[in-house]
Amino acid sequence: MHRKEGHRKEPLYRRVNTTARGVHHNTGGEYRWSRTRDDRFAQGAMSQGKQRGLDYTPLFRFLLSRVGRDWDEVHSEAVARLDKEEPIFWMVARSERDRRPYVIMGESSFYSGLYVDDDNRLAVVAPDLRNEHMKPGCSCCTHTFNGLPFVRKFDPDDRIM
User: Fold this and answer.
1) Minimal CA–CA distance to 103: which of 88, 118, 116?
2) Rg of the chain taking only CA atoms, in angstroms
3) Which end of the chain is more exposed for a tag (fewer CB within 10 A), N or C?
4) What SS3 class is residue 115?
5) 107 — phi, psi (to 5°)?
6) How far is CA 138 from the centre of its chain?
7) With 0-12 CB in 10 A as exposed, 13-18 as middle and 19+ as buried, what is 74?
8) Under a CB-based contact definition with an 8 Å cutoff, are residues 110 and 132 in contact?
């Protein structure tokens, strides 16, 4: 199927119903899950200025699908399909200090941390990190890593990720 000239691609975010029952607005992981005291994700940096009602899952999948590609091209396409640029950097580290093996989006969605390498290519911070390595922090949620449910089950004696 050919696209018509000037056809706009789908946005990399979607609106969610925030008036429905059971919608939780906790936007970050728990402190106990962080590896270091200065972990910006555990301190809620992602939730500052968070706009309710938007789901950036399509963006996160888009970024993962573009690993290995030229960052300038990936960034340009992502920005053109977003309402704002900031959600890109929830997953892509701006500096070496910001690199994390994984990032937590919401209460139980984990994604590979990304960065831009020396060749200006989008890269995974911890390429050997797999779904099988991830441990859920509770038994009530469906935890996912890059969109796939965790393989391991909750063990109350083994809560550190």
Assistant:
1) 88
2) 16
3) N
4) strand
5) -85, -30
6) 19
7) buried
8) no
Token pair for 105: 């989006």
Phi, psi of 96 (to 5 degrees): -60, -35
Query: 28 Cβ partners below 8 Å, 6+ apart?
Result: 41, 42, 44, 46, 47, 104
Task: Express each pLDDT in 35-76 by its tens digit.
Answer: 444 444 444 444 444 456 899 999 999 999 999 999 999 999
pLDDT of residue 158: 75
Domain segments of the chain: what residues? Answer: 33-149
Smallest CA-to-CA distance from 67 within 113, 121, 13, 120 is with 121
What type of residue is 74? V
Helix 57-65 × helix 71-80 angle, to 10°: 160
Q: Residue 32 corresponds to which amino acid?
A: R
